[in-house]
């Protein structure tokens, strides 16, 4: 029996071959993409001949037939135009490679990524392999479903081969056609329109995308709010008290701020001769800070941008590399809750060998950890999880920083909540109320390993009800309301998720597109997105319905497979 297996990338084919071949031994032949061969058991056959090769992402892309290439054509005609699939990289001759390797094989086993795009690539591979196979029926085409490149996960997938899902593949076909027709039609239309109206725009082609444009519109809407903002003056009573032998404490006025100076001055006038602040209430509570949910793609991208200074597209590229190397599970997932049968024990035991947090993991294993019950199970892939222990010297640079975050977040998600006491003290100065707050952590819980989420103690002296404390100062400082800041990448990712723009896999691409096409510029350590003149003119030139997110959200929803 002869079996051909196909992965999405050459590096993945190599990693999977190493796990599937007996003893990890196989021969490699250099062809269009490497082909790994070995002999081993398959179903009831003890000595099946295996070949494992790969594609390099999508085999095809979609485009219009040649009669629609002219920009002189009315863009409206593109919506009913004929499309065709072309080889994504004709020079590689990948379709011929797949056909050649499939000649005479009995089974085709598909190891493409387990998402909708992967399912579409499955059928691209099938269309090139099935005609050359010895058995030309779909019951000889099998689908491996896996979420991590580990021996256990890969062997489980091999023992539970299923069928590819044609409906998911067709959903991608429909989306590709929609994106092509809408994108090309509006790109041609708006390029001619804006260049005729604004000759100084810094672009020869002004592209439109069903997801790109609403993504840009979020950035421009924030820019417009900043530009139209009118600052207002306000006043607030600032009070400072000082208990003997203790540092001075700033009090917060219960009215917060007043936008009329004369009224604020009246309030100050009623208390400006007071010498003491009297404690009228003390409230102490035990509180807890919830440990994080299990990690999904959106939260990974947001943290990498806001805390590590790594762009979403670069973060995704590094995460995919860590996955291919077997360090983490599949990095594209919307799920933030571990399945009931998820083997938390094994992952924690693997991490107990790590030099930085291994001892903490051993304590969790010894004392018991908390299995998370919160989060959302979307049913796609398990949360992003460390699968193989690593030290900083194994990975280096940004790859290590991202792995470090993923591992610590996993450990934190099964750790106890942070426990602390919160004390609120209310003071009376004349007839006006003021307050101050303090807190003290007595059990750091998950923050022991997720140090960036730790909470600093907020010191206030001990007070007793009825006690009078000398007032050190009373004043009426003026402040001004401030405009919102430009969106950060992390904030934009959150808005895209809330409004259904893109998917966990495509969000980095859409953000990268608006940067690469000179619609926005990324500025500062916070990675804020400042629209360029081109981006601003583009969004302002649209009718609102074209840039708002609702149309894209509805269309994405309609392409979702139940």
TrEMBL record:
<dbReference type="InterPro" id="IPR034144">
    <property type="entry name" value="TOPRIM_TopoIII"/>
</dbReference>
<feature type="domain" description="Toprim">
    <location>
        <begin position="2"/>
        <end position="150"/>
    </location>
</feature>
<dbReference type="InterPro" id="IPR023406">
    <property type="entry name" value="Topo_IA_AS"/>
</dbReference>
<dbReference type="Pfam" id="PF01751">
    <property type="entry name" value="Toprim"/>
</dbReference>
<dbReference type="InterPro" id="IPR000380">
    <property type="entry name" value="Topo_IA"/>
</dbReference>
<dbReference type="InterPro" id="IPR003602">
    <property type="entry name" value="Topo_IA_DNA-bd_dom"/>
</dbReference>
<feature type="domain" description="Topo IA-type catalytic">
    <location>
        <begin position="165"/>
        <end position="562"/>
    </location>
</feature>
<dbReference type="GO" id="GO:0006281">
    <property type="term" value="P:DNA repair"/>
</dbReference>
<dbReference type="GO" id="GO:0003917">
    <property type="term" value="F:DNA topoisomerase type I (single strand cut, ATP-independent) activity"/>
</dbReference>
<keyword id="KW-0238">DNA-binding</keyword>
<dbReference type="InterPro" id="IPR013824">
    <property type="entry name" value="Topo_IA_cen_sub1"/>
</dbReference>
<dbReference type="GO" id="GO:0006310">
    <property type="term" value="P:DNA recombination"/>
</dbReference>
<dbReference type="InterPro" id="IPR023405">
    <property type="entry name" value="Topo_IA_core_domain"/>
</dbReference>
<dbReference type="InterPro" id="IPR013826">
    <property type="entry name" value="Topo_IA_cen_sub3"/>
</dbReference>
<dbReference type="Pfam" id="PF01131">
    <property type="entry name" value="Topoisom_bac"/>
</dbReference>
<keyword id="KW-0413">Isomerase</keyword>
<dbReference type="InterPro" id="IPR006171">
    <property type="entry name" value="TOPRIM_dom"/>
</dbReference>
<dbReference type="InterPro" id="IPR013497">
    <property type="entry name" value="Topo_IA_cen"/>
</dbReference>
<comment type="similarity">
    <text>Belongs to the type IA topoisomerase family.</text>
</comment>
<dbReference type="InterPro" id="IPR013825">
    <property type="entry name" value="Topo_IA_cen_sub2"/>
</dbReference>
<comment type="function">
    <text>Introduces a single-strand break via transesterification at a target site in duplex DNA. Releases the supercoiling and torsional tension of DNA introduced during the DNA replication and transcription by transiently cleaving and rejoining one strand of the DNA duplex. The scissile phosphodiester is attacked by the catalytic tyrosine of the enzyme, resulting in the formation of a DNA-(5'-phosphotyrosyl)-enzyme intermediate and the expulsion of a 3'-OH DNA strand.</text>
</comment>
<keyword id="KW-0799">Topoisomerase</keyword>
<protein>
    <recommendedName>
        <fullName>DNA topoisomerase</fullName>
        <ecNumber>5.6.2.1</ecNumber>
    </recommendedName>
</protein>
<dbReference type="GO" id="GO:0006265">
    <property type="term" value="P:DNA topological change"/>
</dbReference>
<dbReference type="GO" id="GO:0003677">
    <property type="term" value="F:DNA binding"/>
</dbReference>
<dbReference type="GO" id="GO:0005634">
    <property type="term" value="C:nucleus"/>
</dbReference>
<dbReference type="InterPro" id="IPR003601">
    <property type="entry name" value="Topo_IA_2"/>
</dbReference>
């Amino acid at each position: 029996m002869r079996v051909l297996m196909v992965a999405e990338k050459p590096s993945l084919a190599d990693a999977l071959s190493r796990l599937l071949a007996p003893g990890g031994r196989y021969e490699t032949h250099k062809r269009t993409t490497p082909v790994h061969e070995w002999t081993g058991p398959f179903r009831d056959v003890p000595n099946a001949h295996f070949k494992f090769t790969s594609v390099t992402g999508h085999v095809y892309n979609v485009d219009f037939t040649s009669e629609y290439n002219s920009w002189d054509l009315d863009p409206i005609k593109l919506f009913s135009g004929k499309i065709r699939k072309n080889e994504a990289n004709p020079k590689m001759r990948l379709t011929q490679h797949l056909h050649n390797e499939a000649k005479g094989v009995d089974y085709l086993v598909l190891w493409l990524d387990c998402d909708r795009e992967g399912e579409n690539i499955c059928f691209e591979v099938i269309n090139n392999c099935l005609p050359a196979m010895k058995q030309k029926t779909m019951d000889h085409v099998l689908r491996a479903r896996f979420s991590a490149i580990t021996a256990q996960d890969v062997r489980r997938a091999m023992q539970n081969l299923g069928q590819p899902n044609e409906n998911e593949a067709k959903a991608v076909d429909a989306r590709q056609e929609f994106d092509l027709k809408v994108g090309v039609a509006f790109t041609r239309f708006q390029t001619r329109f804006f260049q005729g109206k604004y000759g100084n725009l810094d672009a020869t082609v002004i592209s439109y995308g069903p997801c790109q444009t609403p993504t840009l519109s979020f950035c421009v809407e924030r820019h417009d709010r900043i530009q139209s903002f009118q600052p207002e003056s306000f006043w607030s009573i600032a009070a400072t008290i000082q208990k003997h032998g203790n540092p001075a404490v700033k009090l917060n006025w219960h009215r917060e701020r007043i936008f009329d100076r004369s009224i604020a001055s009246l309030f100050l006038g009623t208390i400006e001769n007071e010498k003491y602040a009297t404690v009228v209430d003390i409230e102490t509570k035990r509180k807890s800070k919830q440990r994080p949910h299990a990690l999904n793609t959106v939260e990974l991208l947001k943290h990498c941008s806001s805390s590590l200074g790594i762009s979403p597209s670069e973060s995704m590229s590094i995460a995919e590399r860590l996955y291919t190397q077997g360090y983490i599970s599949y990095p594209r997932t919307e799920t933030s809750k571990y399945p009931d049968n998820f083997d938390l024990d094994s992952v924690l035991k693997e991490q107990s060998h790590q030099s930085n947090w291994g001892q903490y993991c051993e304590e969790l294993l010894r004392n018991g950890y908390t299995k998370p019950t919160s989060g959302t199970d979307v049913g796609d892939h398990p949360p992003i999880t460390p699968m193989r222990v690593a030290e900083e010297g194994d990975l280096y640079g940004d790859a290590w920083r991202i792995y470090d975050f993923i591992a610590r977040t996993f450990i934190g998600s099964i750790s106890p909540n942070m426990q602390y006491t919160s004390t609120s003290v209310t003071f009376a100065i004349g007839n006006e109320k003021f307050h101050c707050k303090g807190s003290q952590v007595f059990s750091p819980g998950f923050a022991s390993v997720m140090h960036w989420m730790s909470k600093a103690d907020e010191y206030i002296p001990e007070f007793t009800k009825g006690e009078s404390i000398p007032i050190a100062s009373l004043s009426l400082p003026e402040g001004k309301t401030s405009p919102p800041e430009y969106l950060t990448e992390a904030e934009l990712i959150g808005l895209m998720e809330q409004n259904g723009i893109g998917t966990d896999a495509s969000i980095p691409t859409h953000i990268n597109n608006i940067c690469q096409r000179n619609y926005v510029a990324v500025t500062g350590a916070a990675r804020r997105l400042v629209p360029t003149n081109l981006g601003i003119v583009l969004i302002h030139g649209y009718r609102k319905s074209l840039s708002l997110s609702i149309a894209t959200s509805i269309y994405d929803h309609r392409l979702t497979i139940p």
